[in-house]
């Protein structure tokens, strides 16, 4: 099993460029299935999950050309629908969460689709009801083949409709949008997710000829069109990677500039770090994190202990709570980290406790962190990355710790971070990769 060996305690210094956004790339690659013309996508992160999805669509018969690093041309003029019956399809689709988003486009262009229960992080129950309830509102029927663990959806004709989503699911909203753009009539989606990923998907679809309004809000109106054409689309920088680097700078007491972050699309992320006492300065479109020996957690206005919790966008993304948690371990003061969406994402704190962090796991959703104000350094240890964001949080912890740590199962980190070891070594880290 591949692993990182990290010699911690080094100060880092320099600039880091975030890759394109993983969750956006997964959506817009699926959207390329909606046209027979060429779609060029740039700033595509070449990370495990995205490369797997590219292989999956290639298996479906989509012509894929890698034009340059992070730049791909897709042409879905000749999809082989028999591929969906193969073991190769099953194995590829099951290995990542993003594969679920081929279903909406398949319903739109083919009237049916099948997908095994998708993988992704094992961070609690990850239901897909919203996807199927939405498809049903468009006139589709679906069935779950429990024996083979496959979802199947069928529709002789998709028809626009009003729907109030049972929750603002990110991939669910993306899937329904992609089914609705070619449906007959008008679809209105209320309680739609509106993350920058979804906004970008809608902008891309509009540039392909779709008619979507209400972008960036939770009320989307989609006027169905007969056909979509090709386009060129650029993915935004990955806001989760940006947040991870802010956390890294704070924990390692380093001076780091994060370049071209697209500040307007970061939402509450910079402010959430500021509440933990981390200085985050905006310099044009860069974020400058100065070297700080100490940072102090703010209280709420009434003097009560700060809570950092996730919420659907424009609330704070759940994908950064593990990073906020690790940053808090060395802050001055206390904070309650409340992961509302996922129920098994905080168990990695056991490792941080082994390293000397002062954390009480109150229940699967909440952890109280008592910061050590950098007065006692975390201790190096051996650990395994349970999921992508716990993985990056543990890597940050190891980089700040005294001594040599190792992290196993680093595929989990590679799922979302492109060449993280190379990038961080270039600014002074000491991370060795063993395959
Ligand atoms: C490939 C991809 O894009 N993955 C992202 C996507 O996953 P994904 O689209 O799978 O996640 P969902 O948005 O469907 O839901 C995530 C979890 O939050 C819960 N939930 C969701 C909405 C809501 O209003 N209330 C609520 O409690 C759901 O029940 C579920 O447990 O969105 C998640 C939530 O931002 C992110 O963590 C994932 O990185
Ligand atoms: C939960 C995540 O990913 P996925 O939905 O792909 O498992 C994540 O990116 O933090």
UniProtKB/TrEMBL annotation:
Source organism, top-level taxon: Bacteria
Annotated localization: Cytoplasm
Domain Enolpyruvate transferase: 7-421
Residues spanning the membrane: none
Chain residues that bind phosphoenolpyruvate: 22-23
Residues that, per the record, bind UDP-N-acetyl-alpha-D-glucosamine: 97, 319, 341
Enzyme class: transferase
GO molecular function, one term: UDP-N-acetylglucosamine 1-carboxyvinyltransferase activity
Record-linked Gene3D superfamilies: Enolpyruvate transferase domain (3.65.10.10)
Main subcellular location: cytoplasm
GO cellular component, one term: cytoplasm
Catalytic residues as annotated in Swiss-Prot or TrEMBL: 121
Pathway: Cell wall biogenesis; peptidoglycan biosynthesis
GO biological process: cell division; cell wall organization; peptidoglycan biosynthetic process; regulation of cell shape; UDP-N-acetylgalactosamine biosynthetic process
Annotated catalysed reactions: phosphoenolpyruvate + UDP-N-acetyl-alpha-D-glucosamine = UDP-N-acetyl-3-O-(1-carboxyvinyl)-alpha-D-glucosamine + phosphate
The EC number(s) this enzyme carries: 2.5.1.7
Keywords: Cell cycle, Cell division, Cell shape, Cell wall biogenesis/degradation, Cytoplasm, Peptidoglycan synthesis, Transferase
Function of the molecule: Cell wall formation. Adds enolpyruvyl to UDP-N-acetylglucosamine.
NCBIfam families in alphabetical order: murA, PRK09369.1
Family named by the database record: Belongs to the EPSP synthase family. MurA subfamily.
Protein name: UDP-N-acetylglucosamine 1-carboxyvinyltransferase
């Amino acid at each position: 099993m591949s692993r990182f060996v990290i010699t911690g305690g080094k100060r880092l210094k320099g600039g880091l460029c975030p890759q394109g956004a993983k969750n956006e790339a997964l959506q817009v690659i699926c959207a390329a299935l909606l046209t027979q013309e060429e779609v060029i996508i740039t700033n595509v992160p070449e990370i495990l999950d995205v490369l797997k999805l590219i292989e999956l669509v290639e298996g479906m018969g989509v012509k894929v050309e890698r034009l340059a690093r992070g730049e791909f041309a897709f042409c879905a003029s000749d999809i082989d629908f028999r591929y969906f019956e193969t073991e190769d399809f099953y194995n590829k689709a099951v290995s990542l969460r993003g594969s679920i988003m081929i279903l909406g486009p398949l319903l739109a262009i083919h009237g049916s689709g099948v997908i095994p229960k998708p993988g992704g992080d094992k961070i609690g129950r990850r239901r897909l009801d919203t996807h199927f309830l939405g498809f049903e509102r468009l006139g589709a029927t679906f069935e779950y083949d429990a024996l083979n663990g496959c979802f199947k959806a069928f529709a002789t004709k998709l028809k626009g409709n009003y729907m109030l989503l049972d929750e603002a699911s990110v991939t669910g909203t993306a899937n329904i949008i992609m089914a609705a753009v070619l449906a007959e009539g008008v679809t209105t989606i209320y309680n739609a997710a509106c993350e920058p990923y979804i906004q970008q998907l809608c902008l891309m679809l509009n540039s392909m000829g779709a008619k979507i309004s209400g972008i960036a809000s939770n009320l989307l109106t989609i006027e169905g069109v007969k056909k979509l054409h090709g386009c060129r689309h650029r993915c935004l920088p990955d806001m989760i990677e940006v947040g991870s680097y802010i956390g890294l700078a704070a924990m390692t007491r380093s001076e780091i500039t994060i370049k071209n972050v697209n500040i307007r699309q970061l939402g509450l992320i910079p402010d959430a770090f500021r509440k933990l006492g981390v200085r985050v300065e905006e310099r044009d479109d860069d974020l400058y994190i100065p070297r700080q020996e100490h940072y102090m957690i703010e209280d709420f206005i009434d003097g009560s202990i700060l809570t950092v919790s996730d919420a659907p966008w424009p609330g704070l993304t759940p994908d950064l709570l593990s990073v906020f948690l690790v940053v808090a371990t060395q802050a001055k003061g206390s904070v309650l980290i409340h992961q509302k969406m996922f129920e098994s994402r905080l168990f990695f704190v056991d490792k941080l406790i082994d390293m000397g962090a002062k954390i009480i796991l109150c229940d699967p959703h909440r952890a109280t962190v008592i910061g050590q104000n950098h007065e006692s350094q975390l201790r190096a240890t051996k650990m395994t990355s349970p999921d992508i964001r716990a993985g990056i949080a543990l890597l940050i912890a190891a980089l700040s710790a005294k001594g040599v740590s190792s992290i196993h199962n680093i595929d989990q980190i590679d799922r979302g971070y492109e060449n993280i070891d190379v990038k961080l070594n270039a600014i002074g880290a000491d991370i060795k990769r063993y395959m």
